[in-house]
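Subgroup meeting minutes
Present: P.N., E.W., G.H.
Scribe: E.W.

1. P.N. recapped why we're keeping a running log of single-chain structure predictions: easier to compare across weeks, and new members can see raw inputs and outputs side by side.
2. G.H. added today's entry (314 aa).
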Amino acid sequence: MQEKGDQPLWSQSADAAVDSDEKESETADQVAPEDIQLASFEDDPEEKEQVDEQPRSFADRLPNLKHYRNRLLIRRLALIIGILMVPLLVVLYFVSPLSRLTEVTVKGNQDVSQEEIIVDSDLTINEDLWPQFLGRNKREAAIEKAIPRIKQATISLVGLNHFEISVQEYEEVALLAQDDTYAAILENGVVLSETSDQPIEGLPILEDFTDETQIKAVLTAYQKLSQELQDGISQIKSTPRESNTELLTLFMNDGNQIIVNISNMASQMQYYPQIASDLKEASIVDMEVGIFTYPISSTKEDDAKTEQSEDADS
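Output recorded in log:
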């Protein structure tokens, strides 16, 4: 320091180095952040992808938000229109011809005419459909009550304004002889008022019956018989006695006659095929008390002798 004398301690080179360092720091401060980010992205690609995936700004999402709101508005408008259209369509239906009955048809009838069933149903064409349909139970009962042949009637809606009446009829199971005429007897025991001069083939004839309750009891016992026995009976006659009011005489197609009680008819008639196979001539099979047989010819001879004795006494 003595040798240098009054010269400054720093040199120009040192000063230049300081200046250069200050310039570099200012240059570094003037570098844009984007340049720094790009430089860092070039060095690290994964960081670049993460930045790209960052949420977009509100301005970028504004078109999608408008589209969503428009769709929501359209849905609400459609719902409101749909709600308003329902009562409008209901009103239009009830004032239109579609709400009125246009046709009535009958299905399942055989012995009863279609016109008779429609009249008894009290259904009216060109009148309001639904009041008539809601009261169909009363109309079905009216048909069954007015027409004895009808076992069951069902009214159903077919198409928009068309009714169909499905009926089931009672079967004719026997005939009741009345003064040389024959009235059909239904399976429920009801005797029809209409009569015919000729009997219906294949149906047994009931004779001398006046009590409808007894007729039903006979038919109930008759229906319990096998089909073979039913086909073998041609006539059922009421032949009561003072000691037995339910006694019957069955006239068979093979010429035999069977005396049997109504209450025992179903149980005792099952033995008849075996008994008939052992008979050598037309006979009477008495099943009133036990079972025994005797020829019809002997009965006729006894009747003839009785008549002769009565004539002689007179």
